[in-house]
Structure formats: structure tokens, C-alpha cells
Amino acid sequence: MVARVAALLGAVSAAEPAGASTTELGKVAGLARPTAHRLLTALAEVGLIDRDTKNGRWSLGPEMYLLGAVAANRYDVSGQARDVVNRLAAETGESAFLSARRGDETVCILSAEGSFPLRSHVLREGVRFPLGVASAGLAILSHLPAGEVDDYFSRARPVGDWGAEHSEESIRARIEATRITGYAVNPALIVEGSWGIGAAVFDQNGRPSWALSLTGVETRFKPDRRHELGTLLLEQAHLLSGRLRS
């Protein structure tokens, strides 16, 4: 039951700010519509989510804000990372992000738009991806010990749902490439023409708990520039890791 509720809350969060219907949320959470509706109604009764009476779409409720405000004292790193994310966007012209690991997923918690007029719209604050799918999650997964990577593949929902390029074999190949360069590359595997590069950020225990990433259109991610962007990401990720450790 707890896992079902958590999956629904994650789906509602990813649908912000427009919200989503019961059917859409049930599909994302892997629940039958009647089950999703029953759980959503119960969550709404305690204020964790809210429903628009005009269009019937669900969104996060006021109690989620209050809980989040309290938890921010322990977990929110956006204040320490905001200047880094803004600097990445300003120096590259691309969209820059900070994502946090949450179990077997990453969730985007901070973003800044670059000056280049053409943008990728794959990632935004609140959006979640399985580890290994987007560049941020791939960067984190690649820096976990080998045994933890094996454990991830043994329990993760089929990442192949994202296409043949997200089979375990394909992701493991990208893990090896990431371990060589230090930064992860998503060569338009989620949306055609939309590239991403990510670098892991480490916590006080040396664990990859966050990732910085840049996304943009394919023409902006040619080989020479990918190396340039990846190097910049690694520099800023190292800076932020040191800041968070202290």
C-alpha cells in the first residue's frame, strides 16, 4: 500500500504544474484506474493532493507544501547549488539542472534557462526518471559500486519500457563510457534531437546523491563541444561536492 501511495505521489509531482487525470496517473503509477481513484481520493481528504473541480485534474496539495517546507531544513541543497546551476546556464547558453537521487530514480529539483533560443523540454523541476535513463541518473548510477549497480538491475522496473536503447545491456555500455570520461551523455535517447550531459555530485560520505546536467538540441552537442560541456560540468560538480561536504 505504501509503495502504491508513493508511486501516485511521484506521478502527481511529475505532472506539475498542469496536473493530470486519474487515468493518466494510474498509468504512470502502474495502477488500475479504480485503485488509483480510491487512493487519490484518500490523499485528497488529508490535503496531500488537490483536485481541480473544473477539469478533474490532480495536483499536489497544501499539506505537501508544509511537509516539504519542514523537510527542506534537512534535505534542500538548492540554496547552495543555485549559483552553480545559473553559472552553467549563463556560460553555455543551454538549460541547466540539478537532480537528486530518490531511491531508483532521480527528480529534478532546480533549473535555469540558457540564452540559446532553441531548447530541449525533456527535463523540468519535478520530473522523475529511472536511474540510467536521463544523463543525470546515468551519471549517478555510473558512480555507484558494481554490486549496487547489479542490485539496481535486479529490482528496477523494466527500463526497456523506454525503448531498446534502455535495455540493461545498453545502459551498462553507457555506464562504462561514463566511467571513462567522468560525465554521462544521453544522445537523444528519450526525445529525438534532444541531448543531455550529466555529472555526479557527491555527499559527505562520497556517495553520488545529486547530478548537474545540461540539455539542448543536437546541433549544440557536437563531439568537440560535448567534451567542453562535460569538462565544465565536472568542474562545477567538483565545486558543489566540496561545498556540500563542508
Describe it for me?
This protein is an alpha+beta fold. The chain has two domains: 2-70, Arc Repressor Mutant, subunit A; 76-245, 2-Layer Sandwich (Beta-Lactamase), CATH 3.30.450.40. It is built from nine helices and eight strands. The strands form two sheets. Strands 5-4-3-8-7-6 form a six-stranded antiparallel beta sheet, with helices on both faces. Strands 1-2 form a two-stranded antiparallel ribbon. The N and C termini lie far apart (38 Å). One of its GO terms (biological process) is negative regulation of DNA-templated transcription. GO terms for molecular function: DNA binding; DNA-binding transcription factor activity. InterPro entries: GAF-like_dom_sf, HTH_MetabolicPath_Reg, Tscrpt_reg_IclR_C, Tscrpt_reg_IclR_N, WH-like_DNA-bd_sf, WH_DNA-bd_sf. Keywords: DNA-binding, Transcription, Transcription regulation.
Q: What's the CATH first level of the largest domain?
A: Alpha Beta
Largest sheet: 6 strands, antiparallel
Which architecture name of the largest domain does CATH use?
A: 2-Layer Sandwich
Instruction: Compute the separation of the termini in Å.
Output: 38 Å
What name does CATH use for the topology of the largest domain? Beta-Lactamase
Q: CATH-wise, what's the superfamily of the largest domain?
A: GAF domain
Query: Share of helix among residues?
Result: 40-55%
Shape assignment: globular
User: What is the radius of gyration computed over CA atoms, rounded to a whole number of angstroms?
Assistant: 18 Å
Q: What's the structural domain tally?
A: 2
Kindly state the number of beta strands: 8
Structural class: alpha+beta
